[in-house]
Fold these 2 entries.
Entry 1:
Amino acid sequence: MLIWAEILVVYAIWLLMAYLTNVWKLEITHASTIVTILWALLNLLPLLHLFIADFIVSDYWMVFIFSISTSAGMGFLAMSTPPVLARITGKCSEYSPECVGRGQKVLLYTSLPLIAFGVAGPAICYARVIVERRNSGVNNVDSWKKFWRFVNSRSPANIVALIAVLGLPYINPWSLQFGIPAICTLVATLLFSTTLSSYNRKLKPNGSPLTILIQVLVAAVSKLFYRIPKDPKELFEIQNSQLHSVPHTTSLRCLDKAAVIIPTKPIEEQEKNKWRLCRVTEVEETKAIVRMIPVSMTLIFCGVVNAIGFTYFMAQLDQTNPKVGRLKVPALVLVWFYRETGQKCADLSAKLSDYLDVSKSASRKLTSSLGIVVSMILAILCCITAAKVESRRLGVVREHGLVDKPDETVPMTMFWLLPQFLLLGAFDGLFGTGVVHFVFDQFPISMYRYLQYFYRSVLGIGHLCSILTVFAVGKISEKGGKMNWFQHDLNQSRLDKYYYTLAWLLAVNLVVFIVVAVFYRYNESKLKDEEFCVTCELEFDNITVTGECTLNLKCCCC
């Protein structure tokens, strides 16, 4: 139920850009900034949620907390619409900026972080909840497993998605468009709360592997003035065949200081304080993360391109004609095509990797890098296509004298925007699987649960950078007394020039990525050639009660 309710919430969030520009009459850049920050949080918060679930609160309680946060956030968002609190605030009840008071603004800006906190969290914990219930001694584990497979299968999710796509846009009051997902989430939360009584409260979090990174950095800084021994065997390591170990490397030797043994103190005393002495394995795992920073920086700009989908693409979609003959087609249909294209491309990329024997390290390096390159090329084509479509839309606007009439529908069918939505979806799908495949061998084994959320965090940082990109491009465009490309509304702006700018910037970024990837120092595969499986936290479809599963890469950007 929570998974299905979350689908309704996500599709409702896609309508937020239209709500802010049509009802609140915000400037297009102001509205896009609000929406972009929300989506950035949706992609950045999972890492924080994983840390909390591993270190502080168990997965079961985290799901409950997330669902409460989502219910409250969507409720506040519904209450931010003018008619809901009109009698209390003394404001008018029309959907116009004059009816938006301070109370509505407080509710809106309170709802967004709550929604981001709630929606970003549940997926990271669903899989382990099933395992926890088995460990809690719950009967009929097989029935729970079958129920999970049904709930998280494609068919029910697609049905709920179609209900959201075909139903939400036909509901005229914005209060109901946001209120219905809030009610559904609340009902799902209440149903989930009935299972809390059977949860084993003795189960405690096992700790987060992210603390190892912090411990290594702190230990290395604390021994800044100690010399690193020439023989790496003199560094601290626990010799135990049952413990995972990584051999020492000569790169980033400054971090080796975290494993330096102070000769003036007993070794037993130093071992007890992990913030002063770390294993060589822990140091090498930290090095692996640090070495990925240059490559990760070349991927951030892809998040800038991704951000135009839920901001400016939706603004364009809101201005075009949604009718096909007499039939009014919901705007969310194009969003559905975008999401489905992303999922299909992710599946295709995974199958292609299997066909090329992705279990072998050399093949995985080639296919992953190629997948990222292809995804960037698709993103460039998406920006160029969007620019040409926007140029045509502006031409229609000028032809019909609609430049100063932003509330009028442009006589141009919305299906002109379909190619750019499809290209953006294909880019997202291939980029997500490409990044996860690329970093698979480079990621420490202890942090595999965080692997696919590494991709999402890169997108989140890119989303935040898109705000700065819009600001910088706008300032540069108005130099020499020229008009800023970003005006109050879409008809007066020049988004086509912004899209062209993104296209050539991404082309430069593509070249930089290829150069960095060529010189990047790859780790050798940590898996046998015949094995390509990780723990169940990395995948949500093929879960087993033993906690292992086949790696199933999918687009998780939404």
Entry 2:
Amino acid sequence: MGRFRRKSCLTVLALASFIFLIVVILKSVPQEALDLPGAFGQDLLPNPNKMEKPQNQPHPDTDNALPSTDNKPDTKAIDLNVDTPLEKYPPPNYNVHAFYYVWYGNPQFDGKYIHWDHPVLPHWDQKVAAEFPTGRHSPPGDIGANFYPALGPYSSRDPAVIDAHMRQMRMAAIGVLAVSWYPPGMSDDNGEFSDNIVPLVLDAAHTYQIKVAFHIEPFKGRDEKTMFDSIKYIVEKYGEHPAFFRHKTRTGKALPVYYIYDSYLVSEAQWALLLKPSAEHSIRDTAYDGIFLALLVEEKHKRSILASGFDGMYTYFATNGFTYGSSYRNWKSVKVFCDDHGLIFVPSVGPGYIDTNIRPWNSQNTRNRIKGRYYETALSAAVEAGSRVVSVTSFNEWHEGTQIEMAVPKSGPPAYLDYSPHKPGAYLQITRKWADKFSGEWLF
């Protein structure tokens, strides 16, 4: 009997210990891991027969709702797929912009892969560079990105791809795409001429009531004269298109919007010759006037941007802490500076950052997505700074891992990240969730 009691006690004690252990483990698991996360599935993808299919795509799922992080019902979750009428989509918010890249190509549309075969960039210090691999990526299995697109390594010229992109942006309530732009006959170091893709983008954007602004890259020979010529070309070639974005100011003018990447590479004096109303050949009060936004990198650039005659500033980089401008803690003071001087502040928010498939030595600048929380933190910081307009870095800059475009799991080698535990459209849903926070006049 004594042995029986001891055995019974031991059994009870073991059972109690097991239950206690399970409770401890469950309490230690983050809440988001206990949720049953969902997001938009792959119903928005075009006909797969029109492009190469990535391997190991999950089966399309009709459960398209991403749970709200505050555990309240997500009233904005609807079923969006290729059969959903446009009137069922959320209205476009023209205060939410997204940077859009048209430099991708594949053999079907371009005769070869473009940008997906991005070279591995060497570190500027030869000793550091020697520690890392070199060469080019080899699509379709090996691409120059840490995530794999749901559309596969697509061509930016493919009408079906462009349509899918517009549909994704519209489902995210993005109202303006800022297309990366080089003048005719020019391109980035790894791409080819892309100005002739702009008409395709404009036509597709118009179908979805999305507007198109221009993100002007630092093309060779860029100065106040070539910038005037570039703006003149853009307005005369694209300015009459119904999708060409014009922001109506308080004075009643409807002006195009231009983001000027790496604006600091042109001197303050040169910009003033273009942007100051008093300059002899100023663009102000001409048919080519616009809203010109400079890139804020260092703190000293605030004064320089003001003196140059810009209308405002944006921050572009999705890496919190990488620059003064991209650091969330500085956005409130930047907004105050802009308000005090009649400038627009457009903070740039991103879902994360990772570029180690093209810059393997740059892991210190990686910013983990944390299942969407990094992106929501950035959006929250933009709201708290008082900004009424926001730019998203990016819709599809795959090389730097800042894309909100749909991505899918892909087996390696090489190894790819994905949006797990969420679905391919998770970051579109987060964008849509926050879009309503940005509204009203831009205050300048």
